[in-house]
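Example 5.3 — Bacterial Ig-like domain (Group 4)
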Amino acid sequence: MKKRLKGLISVFFFLLCIFAWKSVQEVRAAENVIRDFSRIFYIPAGAVLKGGSLQKLQEIYDSMSCIAYTEDGEELYLDAIWDYSGIDIQTVGAYKITGTVRLPEGYTSNVGLPEWTAWISVQNPGQPEIQAYSRMISAGIYYFPWITEQNPDMMEIWLQKEGEDWVNVSEEGYGFADTDGMYLSCQSMIAENIYTLTVVYNEGKTRNLKYRYQSDGSLEILSYQPGTIGGTVSKDTVIRSCEEIDEKSLQRCMVYAVRAGQSLAEVRTELEETFYIFGSTCEEYEDTAAHPAVIMHSVWDFSQVDVNAPGVYKVTGTFAAPEGCTVDQELTVPGATAYITVQRPDQPEVQTCCVVGVDVLFFPMILDCFTDEQLDNLQVYLLENNEDKEIGKSNSYFDRKGLYLKKSVLKAGREYGIYVTYPGGSTGVYTFVYCGELISNEHWYKRNYADRDGKELPDIDDETERVTDTSAILVGNRLLDLMKNGVKLIPFEGDGVLVRVPVEVVKDWNIKAEDQIETDISWVGSDVSVKISKNGEAVTDIPGATVEIPYANRDSQTMLTDEEGNSYTGSVNDAQNAAVIPIDKTGDYTVEEQPQNQTENGGNTEEDDPEGDSLENAADSGEEKLSEQVEELLSEDVKNQKTNSDENLNSQHKKTASIVIIIVILLILLWNIPMRRGKKLRKGERGEGEQSK
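Solution (predicted structure tokens):
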């Protein structure tokens, strides 16, 4: 009976497995359809010595594979299977091998199986050949494999365009030889032309490979046979053509804003390094081995720029032949233009612009005198049909280099004016016609800071003002206008040092419109000299003033010491990398940088400010609280993720447990049925035995 019971259970499980397998097969039969295969992007050509072994090459090719994609989203990795039967290892030549894939059992494909080809070059020992090649499409390079012990540095690659002289490709930089083969750039050739290629080495040369360079980038091999190198080309040095270029892009290629008195050396260097074109010795421009392109750098004329007179200046650039070359007299070389606006630090202007990126106009400005807060509050206005329109920050923004305006606020063919208001003043109006990509008919005129409201005021500057790197002469009218507009601090700048004087102090100078205020702020060695005069009379007392000095090390403290030995320290403006130090008089100051914890007797230090400490402690406390809140949020997020993960796992576990419970119940039921029958049979047997006794 035990055997019958085991047999029953075995039959049940066998039928169960058959049923499950059949169900899976029915599903797979409907799903195992391949819809596409991935590509093998690069299959290198190979080289082997005559009579040698293909084992190394086979290892390379047999390691390749592709991915098969089924209609139900499955990905199968299939090895490439290559046919090497066509290679005669005993005969020198080029042989083509083909490869494909074999589908796993139970899979079909509704597309053709992929097929690949590769070329194998069988070569004589000591005689490298270039009879087989592979193409690196992305790099634009052709690879010709060989086996050689020659020094590749002593090899020369020669290329001949049909009907022309031979060119040393390796010398021109369009190809190079290596121990594993020769590499040739596609830039050395022009499509649909016939070329002959060969390589010369110490003990001989390869045969000549003649081919047509086709428009799809492939090489149609025409012949590979012994040959010589004929006449070689002499290097041409006359530039007869230039690359095709949109000359409109050179009309306003760059704009710059410079301080009055500033050197233009940096601007000149940037222009020369940024802008250049390519020239060619061919009548019709080409960049090939026979006619390699040469770089023609730009040369700029700054003779019309007066850095001491604020205004807008146009500089012109030409493109010159490199050393050793000349430009053909028949060739018209395009020119370039750039614009430079010379501005006073205390009077920024909007005077010129250019396109940067795709959809932004850039207006260079000198904005160093403004704090970050003031810079953020500058306002742009657009004039159209005599109406002012305020431009919001979504369409414009400022940085230290100038104004950036989105082109989307402009319409092609219309005339606009643009200006910027800042604390205490306004720029002039820059008018132009927007042509979609460029601007034309531009003009700039001065503003008197109030004509936006229709007031007719005289010009502030009567041409007596002058600004250099370290000194400035300002008319009294300008300072009176600044004070009238509610400015609290009057900025004076020179040599990278900014001095701000309270308006109340300046009012005590009793300035009149015709007065001249002269400032001289400069470095004298390691000292800073601050001098202010009115009509030639020195101003000495400036209580409440501050001086802003760039610092070299943010971990140090900048200290000023006046001529009487008094020391001054202050705060740090991290945004400007400057130390802001209060002073109360003009004169010469010694500048020193000391560690933060070091103080001097009589010096004003931040450690003496308990309020500053409390603010720092409050800030630290706020940072700690913020950190704790972030950690709580992160921990809650992690808990939520863990809860979701646990719920998913519990759901999966419940499903699995349900299946297991059902199977166990079925097994128990199946086990109990024969066991009960066995008990009755055994009882019957015993009864019959007793009766027989």
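Remark. DSSP finds eight helices and 49 strands in the chain.
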